[in-house]
Amino acid sequence: xxxxxxxxxxxxxxxxxxxxxxxxxxxxxxxxxxxxxxxxxxxxxxxxxxxxxxxxxxxxxxxxxxxxxxxxxxxxxxxxxxxxxxxxx
Amino acid sequence: xxxxxxxxxxxxxxxxxxxxxxxxxxxxxxxxxxxxxxxxxxxxxxxxxxxxxxxxxxxxxxxxxxxxxxxxxxxxxxxxxxxxxxxxxxxxxxxxxxxxxxxxxxxxxxxxxxxxxxxxxxxxxxxxxxxxxxxxxxxxxxxxxxxxxxxxxxxxxxxxxxxxxxxxxxxxxxxxxxxxxxxxxxxxxxxxxxxxxxxxxxxxxxxxxxxxxxxxxxxxxxxxxxxxxxxxxxxxxxxxxxxxxxxxxxxxxxxxxxxxxxxxxxxxxxxxxxxxxxxxxxxxxxxxxxxxxxxxxxxxxxxxxxxxxxxxxxxxxxxxxxxxxxxxxxxxxxxxxxxxxxxxxxxxxxxxxxxxxxxxxxxxxxxxxxxxxxxxxxxxxxxxxxxxxxxxxxxxxxxxxxxxxxxxxxxxxxxxxxxxxxxxxxxxxxxxxxxxxxxxxxxxxxxxxxxxxxxxxxxxxxxxxxxxxxxxxxxxxxxxxxxxxxxxxxxxxxxxxxxxxxxxxxxxxxxxxxxxxxxxxxxxxxxxxxxxxxxxxxxxxxxxxxxxxxxxxxxxxxxxxxxxxxxxxxxxxxxxxxxxxxxxxxxxxxxxxxxxxxxxxxxxxxxxxxxxxxxxxxxxxxxxxxxxxxxxxxxxxxxxxxxxxxxxxxxxxxxxxxxxxxxxxxxxxxxxxxxxxxxxxxxxxxxxxxxxxxxxxxxxxxxxxxxxxxxxxxxxxxxxxxxxxxxxxxxxxxxxxxxxxxxxxxxxxxxxxxxxxxxxxxxxxxxxxxxxxxxxxxxxxxxxxxxxxxxxxxxxxxxxxxxxxxxxxxxxxxxxxxxxxxxxxxxxxxxxxxxxxxxxxxxxxxxxxxxxxxxxxxxxxxxxxxxxxxxxxxxxxxxxxxxxxxxxxxxxxxxx
Amino acid sequence: xxxxxxxxxxxxxxxxxxxxxxxxxxxxxxxxxxxxxxxxxxxxxxxxxxxxxxxxxxxxxxxxxxxxxxxxxxxxxxxxxxxxxxxxxxxxxxxxxxxxxxxxxxxxxxxxxxxxxxxxxx
Lengths: 89, 896, 122
Description:
The complex is a heterotrimer. Chain B is mainly α. In chain B, about 70% of the residues lie in helices and about 5% in strands.
């Protein structure tokens, strides 16, 4: 039940909003990927990352995700009338 | 040495402090100062009930045993929060627009307001939460016993149990006091949310303080700390990929499915914007909570003798260094974690148990409409909620006693998480997939529940406790494919990974298969469309077609559930929106729909739907209606939104015009009748006067007769005078020539005066009042006001036809206005007459019997109009009821 | 024993006044106050004459008049209507429905007495 077809091209501000939403949707997947990468780390070899490195990596990703989310959420508009049914898929 | 008594004293003071915080917050909210109570920060902090005592104490223990794996418990929720645009935003919007009260309500409401699904989800949540609540009780008692030990007392089992019992009782009292104040579970529990926010800060500070002490006080700085970590024997990164990913998934899913998290995330959410702030602020909170977990674990293992319980390092490390203050702070942190979790979990579960099990049962036990019309639903629900709170805590305590509290904390936590997560497929399927059906959801949930109980829950209670060792080894009846920890012969998996994987797979498969193979009911399809397309502004199709219910019946029912003030507000708002005056809007399908939603905020969707169904004769929506709605919607879509708004406006105007027209027609008939009315009213007493004066003139009668006839003449002359007075009074009032004499006085005195003047001494009418509510100072034309009161009381005296007539005067202050209700127990006024009674000469009952001319209420209306207030008929009460609204002056409000 | 007059009226004082005037003139006066049941009363004990008020609780005097003119037992009984409204259209309606006389309140006692004599003896 879609309303009147969405315009194909949007003005700059609306375009920005759309891409911000894309970013917001993407963040958790970035998180999943970054946090599963350590599973691929080599083990039992001399150059394997140390315990401390693992701690720093996990917490580093964490800080990165928090920062990106904070920025995206700051500019994301919740009540944008431009329906997101169209780009929700 | 820190004495144990001081610890108890500090703990009690802390509890008292929390009580005070909750109390003040409730008070502020009650006065309408919700400002910062509803800030995004408070919302974020309230989410911290995710960090229970398990994470406060247990995370360090977990890290000491399995290294960085402890972080998975925080990483999952972080992913959910940073991905809020996907799921949480949707859930919060649905929760608000459908007035969802709990996760069980969400599932039940989505799948056609099904009572059965509500029951299933409630049961799953109860079973999954009980061990978790037991865990909290255990951690609090454990931390007490640590202090008892250091102050030289060795605790016996009895001491431990007594402590756990007292903690459970204390929590029950707190939760009942602040968690069941208002019935509407959809309303925010300001007191509790505030107390939890304070506790969130306390536990964060406590953990950070211990962490900072460990890093800078013991290790000597971050660099040295890292060196220590590298040197530590803990295998920090030794992950099997399966466990790492499974646990992240598990904690993410549990974050969404745990009843208590749903409560704070969705139900207590005051504003969708808060989610945007919480999306980074809460992960940051989690980050801080886990920042020092590894250092504390590493240092604890270094410092403390081998064999000490790593679950208590947060307490024992500072204690071993003689930092008693720090240990005390840390104790309060753990205490906060446990109590805040238990309080919210209990409220969430109690709401579910009461809305989905107790109230439906109670309704079933009542004959038909009886329940909704006469039973005191509100009291039943509140009581059932309070009892449920006690029951949930009692179950937790019982589990604690039975399980003996031995198992490592983290293990119970994960088992409990897996149980709660069984709701995930039904929930996500419900909000993303329109094809999901109630049957599929039920099948998935039941399958998940069975698999979880078999593979994780029962084995977790202990070897040979429920499932004998032989069954674990060879399967039930020797069927190897059904071994609890090696289903279908797949061995060698970690038990948690195994349990999560199989329960989720089978649950999801059954859910999808059931959905594909079954056909949903119309209501289910409607709800499905509303949930899945929550962000499209499609006109919501009403779930009711024709309402055979009368507005008055609906009002009576709504009053019994929501309380009279709230219900009247809803009806008044709706009537105003329809362009009608008074409290009875037209019963349109849209209105029934809205009312149902309001009610579901108190009793849940399924119950509310059932109750409305009883009144409307169950004329719910059918497939044909849906198609009709769809056609209509398609037509409407051809017009623009502007037109839509305009037609709303037109509809309102048309309705107002219709009502005005009806009233005018009625009035013109009345105007016509006015002359003959007034003629009748004047001529009737005149007839008696003339007749008897002629009789007296003619003489020939006894002295008795003579004086009797003289009295009749006198009485009729007075009647005539009164009529003329009333007519004059009314015309003066109507022309606005009246001069008001402002005076200040006490409402109770005015009512006293009115009751005295109404001459009740020789009548059977009993008046009941509440003096404390009447202690109001009014500034107005008090004589006029008393005139109104006298009229209303005298009316009750004349017209109340009950065997034991009774008049109730209820006074309420609402904002800058006071409401004075006069409610009798007679048969009331028929709806068709309610609009007319305030017109001149519009006596509804027999003419002349009551001796008035039918001008009383017309005068009252004019007086109240002049005084800046109003008088209206209040439908849906026990009998005839009139409400006088009077504005309070500034000073009066201050005094009140 | 004089002839029976049935007075259907709901104002107690007017009942008392008319009863007094007519009984002094030798008639037996029965009274009834309710419009709804007035017809039953007439059938149970048919009077020689009826005085009927227009504004009655339950049922209007006009309706009662219409009914009693339609009934065999009562269609010949003389009827005098009383009203306090005193509008011309009421008088027309009453006469059209078959009232023998129409009187507006307030009335003089002599007028009532004379009309009753007239109607009964006619």
